[in-house]
Amino acid sequence: MSTYPEQFRYTKEHEWVQVDGEIGTIGITDHAQRELGDIVYVDLPKVGAVVEQGKPLGSVESVKAVSDIYSPVSGEVVEVNESLADAPEKLNQDPHGAAWLVKIKLSAQDELSGLMSAAEYKSYAGAE
Amino acid sequence: MIREARTHVSRNEPLLFELSSPGKKGYQLPELDVPPVDAAEVLGAENTRAEIEGFPEVSEVEAIRHFTRLSTWNYAIDLGVYPLGSCTMKYNPRVNEAVARIEGLAWAHPYQPEPLVQGALEVMARLEAALAEITGMDAVTLQPAAGAHGELTGILLIRALLESRGNPRKKVLIPDSAHGTNPATAAIAGYAVENIRSNERGMVDVEALARIVDEDVAALMITNPNTLGVLEVNIRKIAQILHDKGALLYMDGANMNALAGITRPGDNGVDVMHLNLHKTFSTPHGGGGPGSGPVAVKRHLEPFLPVPRLKQQDGKWVFDYQRPLSIGRVRAFYGNFGVLVRALAYIMAHGGEGLRNATLDAVLNANYIRKKLEAHYEIAAEAPSLHECVFSDARQAKHGVRTGDIAKRLIDYGFHPYTVSFPLIVHGALMIEPTETESKRELDAFIDAMISIAREVEENPELVTKAPHNTRIGRVDEVTAARRPVVRWRPK
Questions:
Q1: Which domains, ranges and CATH numbers included, belong to chain A?
Q2: Residue B79: how many CB atoms within 10 A of its CB?
Q3: Which domains does chain B have, with CATH numbers?
Q4: Nearest to B437 by CA among B113, B79, B53
Q5: Alpha-carbon gap, residue B247 to B272, rounded angstroms
Q6: pLDDT (tens digit, 9 = 90+) per residue, A6-36?
Q7: Cβ(B204)–Cβ(B198) under 8 Å?
Q8: How far is B403 from chain A (nearest CA, A)?
Q9: Which residues, 6 or more positions from B68, have their beta carbon under 8 angstroms from its beta carbon?
Q10: How far is B478 from chain A (nearest CA, A)?
């Protein structure tokens, strides 16, 4: 079974965000990588791109399908996990850690209150 | 030493490169009877070479046998059920081929003057009229080369109309049950894509739609029936919501084989739609012949259709290029003409009553499969099925078997797999579309195989997860193939 870190906030589209000050680190959940299957390609925005909550910020391609990644928060991309370009399999191995996708400088902290807690997400993902 | 003798059908085939042996050839050229030309002198030495490294050298019979053996590995609609959902793999009647080979049609050249190709133009005009009648639309262009090309043409028509009204708008709405090409079409036409979720019946949620549609929305692209095989029964209400805000309704007509002869999109508020002649109208798919994706429109979009348009002048067919509002050509010449001939042959051979019967049989066949398999596989949407039925692998997943495994096991039973893991809104989808082609005997054989596999999943899941067992190659490493593709053979 998947475990879900308490310090993350979660979206219905299966992304997570961990906020440290004004920077949010974003990734896809373990549940998401399990559903997608073997991931073969990750398409991420460039540093400096402005993203909006709930809008696509990139996509992941698995052997089954291409899926959009929806941004859990609005803001500006300040760092991109370049290592995923050569090793997309990391997303299957460590989606909550080494395979974070981007870091975003948050423009609206209050958006976080609309996201799910670990307990809420766990029951949401379990029911799906 | 005697080695195990096997027929070629169960033997693997080397690559042509591996069969090669130096000096062999499959041709014999006659004596040169014109003055020789030095290629290096004429083309420049940097553009010529004496040897192509690794080019295979085989005899004629070796080349013939190689490709003939490979051809026996194919699965085709001429061998059995081809139940790929969404693809509509119906039989391609041989009479279509006979008609397409009529000398005057097969040898017509697109640069021939109009007075010399009146018959070919008449074929196109009649097909346009037939498709307009079947869809309930006012005008048809035959240019687009396939379905997704038709979609793009349709959305460009919408953009042109909205621009002529002063504002092309920003967004195209697409239900999550639509065909996967729709979002790409909207994006390439310069629109932002907004997804809308289906309700629990597997249909567009009309109330939710009414809340989203505003002056920024250019169009909704709806697939009807949608990829769950479910009819969007609220289509008129949906059209009304869009039209009230000045937006248009695009219908992806890839599933028109569930509607032809029964109901007409044009009567239900659709402004523009495409058809796939290689689906509903029985022309060959993909490698078997080019596709064709005609676009049908209502009167208000007609001025924008691609040039040239066919018109009557003094009792003759001519091409009209004088259409200032046209979006221009979308395809060289007039579309995939040979395919148009086949589609018209199909339509005329059936007649109105025949097309209606084909639709009814396609729906009947899909529902027969649904009914027979419902006890063994989880149906994805409660709403009635039309031309295809979609199951999920929920029951099999409990035994560690997924839809892709079941599909591979189906190969062992001698059938082409159904469509795997699509639509994405269904967890582990099995999407089955038998078409009207299949007899009850053939359907029963397919159903027996599916039920037998469901039993294997419960009794011996490994048999299924390790399938196929009866093919030359079993499980290929699709993950490495996708992550680190090798797209060219190189000598070792």
A1: 9-107 (2.40.50.100)
A2: 11
A3: 8-71 (no CATH), 94-349 (3.40.640.10), 360-480 (3.90.1150.10)
A4: B79
A5: 12
A6: 999 999 999 999 999 999 999 999 999 988 8
A7: yes
A8: 11
A9: none
A10: 7
Q: Say if strands B217-223 and B248-253 run parallel, antiparallel, or are unpaired.
A: parallel
pLDDT averaged over every residue in chain A: 92
**ipTM (interface pTM):** 0.71
Tokens of B49: 């070479």
Q: Is the pTM of this model over 0.80?
A: yes
Asked if B86 and B433 count as a contact pair (C-beta separation under 8 A), the reply is yes
CB distance A101 to A58 below 8 Å: yes
Q: List the single residue in A64, A65, A88 with the smallest CB-CB distance to B483.
A: A88
C-alpha gyration radius of chain B: 26
**Distance (Å) from the C-alpha of residue B483 to the closest C-alpha of chain A?**
5
Tokens linked to B139: 């005008």
Tokens of B163: 């621009």
A78 and B CB contact within 8 Å: no
Q: Do B424 and A65 touch (CB under 8 A)?
A: yes
Looking at the DSSP bridge assignments, the partners of residue B249 are B220
Question: What pLDDT band is residue B101 in, cutting at 50, 70 and 90?
Answer: very high
Q: How far is CA B3 from CA B6, B44, B62, in A?
A: 9, 53, 21
Contact A38, A116 (CB under 8 A): no
